[in-house]
Design goal:
- The chain is of the alpha+beta class.
- It has one domain (about 50-310): Jelly Rolls.
- Helix content is about 30%, strand content about 20%.
- It contains eleven helices and 14 strands.
- The chain has helices spanning about 20, 25-30, 65, 70-90, 100-115, 120, 170-195, 205-210, 280-285, 335-345, 355-360; strands at about 60-65, 90-95, 135-140, 150-160, 215-220, 235, 245-250, 255-260, 260-265, 270-275, 295, 305-310, 315-320, 335.
- The strands form three sheets. The chain has an eight-stranded mixed β-sheet. It has a four-stranded antiparallel β-sheet with strand order 6-11-8-9, with no helix packed on it. Strands 13-14 form a two-stranded antiparallel sheet.
- Helix 4 packs across helix 7 and helix 5 (about 100-115) crosses helix 7 (about 170-195).
- The model is unreliable at about 1-10 (pLDDT under 50).
- Bound molecules: 2-oxoglutaric acid and fe (ii) ion (FE2).
- 2-oxoglutaric acid binds near residues 253 and 293.
- It comes from Acacia crassicarpa.
- This is Fe2OG dioxygenase domain-containing protein.
């Protein structure tokens, strides 16, 4: 086996480049080779041995075909497993989801092709803020962040209206098909979660306006990083929607926080990775946990992840489902999803606080 590439860290400070000047970390990494990374990418990363690898095999797996079974007991068991996964982990893998391997492969290949387009060709999609329907950029939020992240992204609003770049050819078509299939899987999971909370299966869809809900289709690319122990691909965060469904290539990097420890996610072949997001924690009045996650890097392979955030309707007031409040006190304020999303954008650089903390009601006394 070839020895791992080594990096000679010179005594002089590496350059402090700004992500806005870099423009694309993929292009930068291609030309930078094994040179030290700019110090502006140094994240304060907890020691890697803080990763609880013994927990990786305990990540819940939901067999989607059992959830959709006509057999009442099989369905009920799957619902109860799903409810437990959302409560204990806020995170699970979905197998037998019915989306063909061929479609998933096509989406992945086109995602790679997009990021491989010359920088000049992607300029027209440059990020113009969180509500822009098509936005391409690098890092997390270069204008405001203190530390940059080793990632390029493409983000599209694909519901209620479908927006997508016109290149590379064929991407838009497969992405449309994929985004609709993901919405259908998200809807069925939401119905199962609703039942697990003791509600009618359509209760969560109805109270979140899911029929005209927001969907954000993201395509992340993390190039190999010569000093992966110094930087992150994405900082620890929770997602703003209801349920995020993510598909990735075979390269690991996603970590989730469980019982105070980071756990590496090693996805089963062709599965979807699901995480509970903030709005689901709020509508379930805290029964489902929005999970903290981040992306770490490696020095050999390019990682691609394709998370689709499935959220409520943007103009809908979201708070604990009224049926739940017949028996319990609300633990979260009710706030319009649009305003929540805005709030999340504004406070995302406050390391100790997430947007959920802003809407949590203190019921201690
Ligand atoms: O790349 C990953 O695995 C995580 C991506 C993610 O969390 C996000 O885009 O919100
Ligand atoms: Fe995320």
């Amino acid at each position: 086996m070839a020895p791992p590439p080594t990096v000679s860290v010179s005594s002089s400070e590496p350059p402090k480049l700004h992500a806005s000047d870099i423009g694309s970390i993929k292009a930068f990494a291609d030309s930078n080779g094994l040179s030290p990374i700019p110090s502006s990418y140094y994240s304060i990363v907890e020691a890697r041995d803080d990763v609880a690898d013994h927990l990786a095999s305990s990540i819940p797996v939901i067999d989607f075909s059992l959830l959709t079974s006509d057999h009442p007991q099989i369905h009920a068991d799957a619902v109860s497993q799903l409810g437990k996964a959302c409560a204990d982990w806020g995170f699970f893998m979905v197998t037998n989801h019915g989306i063909s391997e061929k479609l998933m492969e096509e989406v992945m290949n086109k995602a790679h092709e997009f990021h491989n387009l010359p920088v000049e060709e992607k300029k027209e999609f440059g990020d113009k803020g969180p509500w822009a329907p098509i936005r391409h950029g690098t890092s997390f939020f270069p204008q405001a962040e203190k530390v940059h992240f080793w990632r390029d992204y493409l983000k599209l609003i694909t519901s209620p209206q479908f927006n997508f770049p016109h290149k590379p050819p064929g991407f838009k078509e497969v992405a449309y098909d994929y985004s609709r299939k993901i919405r259908a899987v998200a809807r069925t999971l939401l119905q199962g979660i609703s039942e697990s909370l003791g509600l009618e299966s359509k209760a969560l869809e109805d109270c979140t306006g899911f029929d005209s809900g927001l969907q954000v289709f993201a395509v992340n690319l993390y190039p190999p990083c010569p000093q992966p122990e110094l930087a992150l691909g994405m900082p620890p965060h929770t997602d703003h929607g209801l349920l995020t469904l993510l598909y990735q290539n075979e390269i690991g990097g996603l970590q989730v926080k469980h019982d105070g420890k980071w756990v590496n996610v090693n996805p089963l072949p062709n599965c979807l990775i699901a995480n509970v997001a903030d709005q689901l924690e709020a509508v379930s009045n805290g029964k489902c946990k929005s999970i903290l996650h981040r992306a770490v890097l490696n020095n050999r392979n390019t990682r691609i992840s394709i998370p689709l955030v499935n959220g409520p309707e943007v103009e809908k007031e979201i708070g604990p489902a009224s049926e739940l409040l017949e028996k319990e006190e609300p633990l979260y304020k009710t706030i319009k999803y649009r305003d929540y999303f805005q709030l999340q954008q504004e406070i995302r650089f406050n390391a100790d606080k997430g947007a959920l903390d802003e809407i949590r009601l203190n019921r201690q006394n």
